[in-house]
Amino acid sequence: MKLKTRYLQMWAISPLFAFFCISWQSGADPITLLTNGHVKYWDAAKGESWRLDTKGDLAAYHYRDGMRVEADYGDVLISYSRWALRGDTIFQLAGARVIGEFQILKLNKDILTIKSISGMYGSDTLFFRNAKDQTSRIKTGDRIREIESTK
């Protein structure tokens, strides 16, 4: 009973501590949950979807005609960026520059919920689901870009 009470007190003191306790108890660390240990496609409920891999590559994509395609907004083509995790925050990077910061609100093998804290998406909460198709690549132009990480 003391352990349970102490754990609840720590939850109130540090949500980050609780986040890592939950991850540790579930047997998976946040990087593994985000990348499935290699590469993982996350379909967005609204907006751009993400492909994250263990090497730190982040690719934004949409679906067009049932295929994954690079996120393209007409005058802006979002290709590849990098990502890093520090505590409960995902940083989206362009070179050494941070272009987005997202606090993880919920993370398990099927759901990723994040809140933009950098202003990149205002203060939107973004919802992602584990993509059912984890093998199809992202199509770019007339070619398929090889984006799978080597094992």
Q: Can you walk through the features of this model?
A:
Helix 1 packs across helix 2 (15-26). This protein is 20% helix and 47% strand. The N and C termini lie far apart (44 Å). Mean pLDDT is 77; it is low at 1-25 and 142-151. The protein contains three helices and 13 strands. It has helices spanning 2-13, 15-26, 30-35, and strands at residues 39-44, 49-53, 57-64, 67-72, 77-78, 80-86, 89-94, 97-107, 111-116, 120-123, 125-130, 139-140, 143-144. Strands 1-2-3-6-7-8-9-11 form an eight-stranded antiparallel β-barrel. It is globular and about 35 Å long. The chain has 151 residues and is of the alpha+beta class.
Overview in brief:
The protein is of the alpha+beta class and 151 residues long. It has three helices and 13 strands, in the order αααβββββββββββββ.
What is the alpha-carbon Rg in Å? 17 Å
Q: Which assembly state applies to the chains in this document? A: single chain
Strand order, largest beta sheet: 1-2-3-6-7-8-9-11
User: What proportion of the residues is helical, as a percent range?
Assistant: 10-25%
The count of DSSP E runs of length 2 or more, i.e. the number of strands, is 13
Distance between the termini: 44 Å
- Number of helix segments? 3
Largest sheet: 8 strands, antiparallel, barrel
Strand content is over 45%
Instruction: Give the rounded overall mean pLDDT.
Output: 77
H/E topology pattern: HHHEEEEEEEEEEEEE
